[in-house]
Hints:
This protein is of the alpha/beta class. Helices cover 38% and strands 13% of the residues.
Amino acid sequence: MKLHATVAAVTQRIIERSQPTRSAYLAQVQAALQRPLGAQRLGCANVAHAFAAMPGNDKLRVVAEKAPNIGIVSAYNDMLSAHAPLQRYPDLIKDEARLRGATAQVAGGVPAMCDGVTQGTPGMELSLFSRDVIAMATAVALSHDVFAGALMLGVCDKIVPGLLIGALQFGHLPTVFVPAGPMTSGLSNGEKSKVREQAAQGLVGRPELLAAESAAYHSAGTCTFYGTANSNQMLLEAMGLHVPGTAFINPGADVRDELTREALRTVLGSAAYKCPPIGLLVDERCIVNAMVALLATGGSTNHLIHWVAVARAAGIVIDWDDFSALSDVVPLLSRVYPNGSADVNQFQAAGGPGFVIRELLDAGFMHADVLTVRQGGLREYTAVPTLATDRPAAPRKNEQYKPTALVWQAIGASKNEAVVRPASAPFSASGGLKLLTGNLGRSVIKISAVPDDRHVIEAPCRVFDSQEALHQAFAADELNRDLICVVRWQGPQANGMPELHKLTPPLAVLQGKGFRVALVTDGRMSGASGKVPAAIHVSPEAAAGGPLAKVRDGDVIRLDANTGSLRVLVPEFDWAIREANAMPKDLRAANAVGMGRGLFTAMRRHASSAETGACSCL
């Protein structure tokens, strides 16, 4: 299938725009590829330190026999459901490495925080910058420089982008990402949201709300809605960085352990196919494929920040205009909560990433001619893995592991067209994200879950300096009218750009009462944001002198997702001479203390804008 003209044009302008930085990056990768392996290159004392704790046979392999040594970077902790399954992975990987005549070491761990735990608390202000901390921790882990390849163990919101940014600093290493999969389905996302809205209205109390939340989030694995964590996994499939089809297989599934072993086999490569260095694999076409997959599935708005940063780590420059141009032509092929009622387990059962990738390839919306970690290329990601029916029995205690055959089966037609549809009959002819521009700056809106009659909202605004202030006004019944809520001082430089997901229930309640409401903010909404129109990531942010600092209570704002416009309807001359407010000193001071926020002062000070990735380390 011929590549769609818009996809080809966007890719070409990214290539041209990125030429200086991408060339410099590739030169660094090529220089690193020319060096001997670390065990042969480093001094004897360095080598002795690196392998001192290794079992004797492993030490012999890597030092004397020059066997490949694979570095494992893990986001394991047993507090967070998505990462708890990773505890067992290093032992599986090391065992598989020995069977293959190689070795593996846990090179280091990275922090993994959960936005669900910290949502609406001061700790949430560390969340976005934890991505950069993870990137730096990944670099520290790999800086020992004794590895022939790397495996990245991580799943959730900031963790995967951080691991990917860090791994790209070692672009000469073949690298495979190893997920853990989603938890099994519990209380439906729709029922959970209903109870949240009831709680916001005072119709149910804390016991009922806690019971609902606990029924939804109930076991090991990622949350089952299609937020940032699960969008991560979709994008990694589209980039060819996973063992194909592993994204949404549950942690307890029989095939999961074998897929983890397959990740080690993949990074080692074979006589027929050598896993390519990640710096060569992640090129402009690969990044465009990720952008297309995000749009086709109505994925998390957070990736309009994260994947800009990921691309820059590989010397590739993308911006929101690129997302917008692609969104105009890429069809919406899935409806997964919050863009529908299905969860990711139902998405997987209906066809999942493999179905979506196949449809996009067949319709010419994705680059098929890209490198992946596997010999079969991106087409290999259009099938689902399973264990062979004639597999050997599971080994008994103290018995040696017996390799099990993995087979990949064709996805076939959609098993549920209410969840995934072919490109010939999409849910929408365009993607779920829209760029908004105007005299309030540049922002984005996720419209895939917003009712059509809410794509244009024009109303007087109420300005809030914090999300707590909005909650207080809602509780005092001050917001029962057509209204655009402006929540400012929420950008990277102001307070680290926390997600404002707890604003969704009160705004949804107001919308449910029939009021025409919207949110405008320089902060982020969760990957779970949905049916309430929200112009988010407004750039430049208020704390950097952006236009939101000039808005006053009662100003009429027009949010028009159809035309891509976000404007305050103040006469041009009056708007030009209006003085901007400064960020309140007490608010800025409060952001710098407690819950470790003081340690992130330098990151806030040096953070780039949301559109350039909100980076403090690139």
